[in-house]
Design brief:
- The chain is of the alpha/beta class.
- It folds into two domains: about 10-115, Tetrapyrrole methylase, N-terminal domain (Cobalt-precorrin-4 Transmethylase, domain 1, 3-Layer(aba) Sandwich), CATH 3.40.1010; about 115-235, Methyltransferase, Cobalt-precorrin-4 Transmethylase, Domain 2 (2-Layer Sandwich), CATH 3.30.950.
- It has helices at about 25-30, 65-75, 95-105, 115-125, 155-160, 175-185, 210-220, and strands at about 10-15, 35-40, 55, 80-85, 110, 135-140, 165, 190-195, 205-210, 225-230.
- The strands form two sheets. The protein has a five-stranded parallel β-sheet with strand order 3-2-4-1-5, with helices on both faces. Strands 6-7-10-8-9 form a five-stranded mixed β-sheet, with helices on both faces.
- Helix 2 packs across helix 3.
- The longest helix is centred in the N-terminal third of the chain and has 13 residues, at about 65-75.
- It is globular.
- The structure holds S-adenosyl-L-homocysteine (SAH).
- The site of S-adenosyl-L-homocysteine has 23 residues, from helix 4 and strand 10.
């Protein structure tokens, strides 16, 4: 890591919720921080317990205020951590913060985190790719208050029938299911919804595109949920990978005769 840069602001991925799912580096930076600005409701407060830092909850702050707090502290030589849920590179809104810091000439680094997509796959114990089924994972969202660019509508993405991890869309599960089907997925394609993956009150709902909306409604799931779609979620079909195949050799292993 480029620790030689003068006192950077650290954007740190907090992981999906379980405090053991932050990186070792992220944990160390939090422990050493003088100021922590954390992203409200989705960051587990357990991560902040016992910190010596001054702590700010960004959910009640606008961008100007966040930048003011971070840049003010950094300029006083304080160690600043900006803590984001999951991995900061996905729906993290760090781009706008980094642009402001660029403008102010303030250095920063990004420490990755475990995205809720990976945590949800772990919770349901599935691999999101499988030879012969899907070799592509799409991270997306349904258009809501934030529109999506042309060509990125759920319907358009569905034609690939790849594995999808759909963020920020659980409140629109009915419309979403309709679009997945009209876009090209067979109605019986498996879907898993994981609410609060890795938290103590995690909930898992499994079904198919045609029945997932009613299952989600019945379970009362309204927010903080990952929707995963794709034939890959079924443990049937597909092929074993070449990686461990006895007749396949690669740089690290010779094929069996
Ligand atoms: N940067 C985050 C995503 C932030 S957007 C990440 O990498 O995970 C917020 C959305 O992420 C939520 O609407 C939900 O779809 C998903 N999400 C975040 N935490 C989650 C969790 N613990 N379980 C399931 N979904 C989660």
């Amino acid at each position: 890591m480029k620790e030689n840069i003068q006192n950077p602001v650290y954007f740190v991925g907090a992981g999906p919720g379980d405090p053991e799912l932050i990186t070792v580096r992220g944990r160390r930076l939090l422990d050493q921080a003088d100021v922590v600005v954390f992203a409200g409701s989705l960051v587990n407060p357990v991560l902040l317990k016992g910190l010596r830092a001054e702590i700010h909850d960004s959910s009640g702050m606008d961008l100007d205020r966040v930048i003011q707090v971070m840049s003010g502290a950094q300029q006083q030589g304080k160690k600043v951590v900006r803590l984001h849920t999951g991995d900061p590179s996905i729906y993290g809104a760090i781009r706008e913060q980094m642009k402001r810091l660029n403008g102010l000439g303030i250095p920063y680094c990004v420490v990755p985190g475990v995205t809720s997509a990976a945590a949800s796959a772990a919770s349901i114990k599935r691999e999101l790719t499988c030879p012969g089924i899907s070799q592509t994972v799409i991270f997306t969202r349904r258009a809501g208050r934030t529109p999506v660019p042309r060509g990125e509508e759920i319907k358009a993405l569905s034609q690939h029938q790849a594995t999808m991890c759909i963020f920020l869309s659980i409140a629109m599960i009915e419309e979403l299911a309709e679009e997945l089907i009209s876009g090209g997925y067979p109605p019986r394609t498996p879907v898993a919804v994981v609410e609060k993956a890795s938290w103590p009150d995690e909930k898992i709902i499994e079904g198919t595109i045609e029945d997932i909306a009613s299952r989600v409604k019945a379970a009362g799931i309204k927010k903080t949920a990952m929707i995963m779609v794709g034939r890959v979620l079924s443990m049937e079909g597909g092929r074993d990978s070449n990686l461990y195949h006895p007749e396949f050799h690669h740089g690290y292993r010779k094929a069996r005769d």
